[in-house]
Amino acid sequence: MRHIVSTCIIVSSITFNFLIAFAFNDEIIHPKMSKEALEASLTVSNSYFKDNLILQYGIDTSVNGKFLYQWIQYGAEMEDDPMCRASNHFHNPYLDWTTSGLSDTLKIVDWWCWGTSSYPPDQIKSNITWATGFIDRGYIDPYSDVQDFNAWDWESARKYYLAYLTGSDLEVGNNVVVADEQRRNQFLTYTFRALGQLMHLIQDTAVPAHVRNDFSQGHTRYLAEHESTWNILKWFGNPFEDYVRRRNKTSWFDKEPDNGDFLDFRITDLWDANILRADTTPDQLSQINMSCLGLAEYTSINFLSMFTMFKTDGDDGPLVFPYPKPEHCVVFMEKPQDVLTNLERQYLANWNGHPGETIYKLAAVGYLKYFRDAYFPNISNEKLPVALDDNCYEEYAQKLIPRAIGYSADLLDYFFRGQLSVTTIPRFNNNTFKDIKLNIQNTTETQESMLDGNFFLLIHYKKEVRVHGIFPYESNPGKVRHYITKVGSNTFHEKWERGLFI
Predict the structure, then answer these.
(1) CB of 136 within 8 A of CB of 142?
(2) What is the arithmetic mean of pLDDT over 365-381?
(3) Which three-class secondary structure string do you get for 371-396?
(4) b (16+ CB within 10 A) / e for 93-109
(5) Are 490 and 432 in contact (CB under 8 A)?
(6) What is the DSSP letter of 213?
(7) What is the pTM of this model?
(8) Is 90 exceeded by the pLDDT of residue 274?
(9) Per DSSP, what are the bridge partners of residue 66?
(10) Residue 430 confidence (pLDDT)
(11) In whole angstroms, what is the distance from residue 483 CA to residue 502 CA?
């Protein structure tokens, strides 16, 4: 019986080990990147929250027990909770979005997620679909099935924000007004938490293993520096993520963020702009600005994960991930000496025709290469034994973290991008207030057309009475819309403090 109990404990420990480290550290790195993204955001720097939402201190405003920026950090931390939720954090940019999620799973993890969570392995979604609901870049509407499992996706964030702006109690009914300001503010905290969880998902695509379907081996490595802790759950994980957690260098976060630069932008482009194909040639890629790629595409073509390095489909088959290519790599000697062995070490650099970023330490070459070259000169360099070490991870972090921060800031700016210019003209009849005329124009900088829908007009009285009107409209880009509506009583103009048009 003792042996059975011991076996159960060991199996449970192993299961937790495999599940615990799916991504960048959720207690330190994700919240830190998200805070940096907030500071890099044009929305924050342009005082959007102070000017448009009348939040006196902007993101430093305290709402329901936390500052707004802390609600985003909280979301960035919570996206990995519970652990099985993180199985939806992978995306292979070479595949259709309905099949691009994690398939490199472990049976023991599958069994655990079947039995202990609401995230069963047969419902795994790709990172991009889990975040946005979309199953293809060309779809107009999100795939509603995602919200059965994810209450913090892009569409949910939009609903929470609309509920906050209109004062509707979304959890009771769209036409039910919230009981008080605290209840209304709860939807603002939901909005910022959802944005934090979405930033976490974007940031995960800056981890090579997350965009190269590398979990069963790439996320279960023994991490030697954790030997000092009694928490066995921290002994295993992804070495690149662990390196970022251990080093946590200020220089990575102080670099200028690398933002996206997309044509005909859609929210899904931050993950995958649908440019990369398995048959995309180096010449075609060389014509593409790296900032036009989604972060999953950028990471996959420029970096390696531990168990997908030059991996082929069979002994002589094509590369499972077409880039980086071994023929684009050259070997050079690194100085100073290797920190672990005091030996000079050779590295692969991709400067021999790679169409993307130049990476000087793409991978480390085995120490026995000297003897291999001396005694087995006919073996192709494409079959070199290679690995990833801390010098590789350092260069990876220098390029990937600023881009993860930049793309996270892009998400925030896109979410709050909408701008309407509204001019109000009160109208009177015999010195009695009659109605107001609204001149409305879409002044959003992206010059996007507004699709058919509704306008919402909220009136805040001085005595905190709110009047809520809804007006249908038809899209007609570039035109100023005129609406006249009768609201309230004859003393409306005297009691009206401010209005919000949505």
Answers:
(1) no
(2) 66
(3) HHHHHCCCCCHHHCCEECCHHHHHHH
(4) bbeebeebbbebbbeeb
(5) yes
(6) T
(7) 0.84
(8) yes
(9) 63
(10) 82
(11) 14
